[in-house]
């Protein structure tokens, strides 16, 4: 089994596509046709599958930094496409939930004319207006929450990149320190060898001077003995 980052990404991507197709099918078909507890159960299943899809996308993002630089950009674009598709499904789910909540409220006992858009009852119109305004506020709050979550995730990614860079710099510093330590040891050995060479040089000079002195003395003695004879 190929466990390379590219192969794992492809496997995650295939699982994500199948799960995304299942989510779209439920949201466009099953959920809209169901009511009551069956609808709630179907929405719960969709929410669970959506969480699973988010986990798959997160795993795809984890594998991305380990890929070769030459292909990383291509897979990064595919990851962004998957994220955009996931965001669209989230929006559809949010709209479906809002429609369901609106339908339940408007069909309640407090809205006798809720199904009649042309009613002249001011109480019904005011209640419907407040309901729509409240629904819009909920949707706006959800969007702001999603944006805050996205910013937090982007900030986390930036922090992770900084930590990886710092880790790489630390490894470089440690490597440089080890190199300097080895260089210091080599310099110490070279200095010791040079001292020995200098000592031997002076020793040889002393021996040479002594030999020359002996030879000079012998020459003088020979000349002196010949002059006397």
Automatic annotation (TrEMBL):
Keywords: Coiled coil, Membrane, Protein transport, Transmembrane, Transmembrane helix, Transport. One of its GO terms (biological process) is vesicle fusion with Golgi apparatus. The chain crosses the membrane at residues 206-224. Belongs to the VTI1 family. Pfam families: V-SNARE (PF05008), V-SNARE_C (PF12352). Residues 43-99 form a coiled coil. It is a single-pass type IV membrane protein. Signal peptide: none annotated. It comes from the Eukaryota. It is found in: Membrane. The keyword Transmembrane helix applies. This is Vesicle transport through interaction with t-SNAREs 1.
């Amino acid at each position: 089994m190929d466990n390379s980052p590219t192969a794992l990404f492809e496997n995650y991507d295939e699982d994500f596509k199948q799960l995304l197709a299942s989510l779209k099918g439920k949201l466009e078909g099953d959920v809209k046709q169901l009511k009551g507890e069956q609808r709630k159960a179907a929405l719960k299943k969709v929410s669970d599958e959506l969480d699973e899809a988010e986990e798959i996308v997160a795993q795809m993002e984890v594998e991305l930094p380990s890929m070769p630089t030459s292909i990383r950009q291509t897979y990064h674009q595919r990851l962004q496409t998957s994220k955009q598709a996931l965001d669209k499904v989230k929006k559809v789910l949010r709209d479906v939930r809002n429609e369901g909540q609106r339908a339940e409220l408007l069909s309640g006992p407090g809205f006798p004319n809720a199904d009649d858009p042309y009613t002249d009852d001011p109480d019904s119109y005011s209640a419907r207006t407040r309901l729509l305004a409240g629904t819009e506020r909920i949707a706006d709050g959800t969007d702001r929450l999603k944006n805050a979550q996205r910013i937090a995730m982007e900030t986390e990614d930036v922090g992770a990149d900084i930590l990886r860079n710092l880790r790489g710099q630390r490894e470089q510093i440690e490597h440089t320190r080890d190199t300097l330590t080895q260089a210091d040891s080599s310099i110490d050995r070279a200095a010791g060898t040079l001292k020995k060479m200098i000592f031997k040089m002076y020793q040889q000079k002393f021996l040479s001077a002594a030999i020359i002195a002996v030879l000079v003395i012998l020459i003088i003695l020979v000349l002196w003995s010949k002059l006397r004879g």
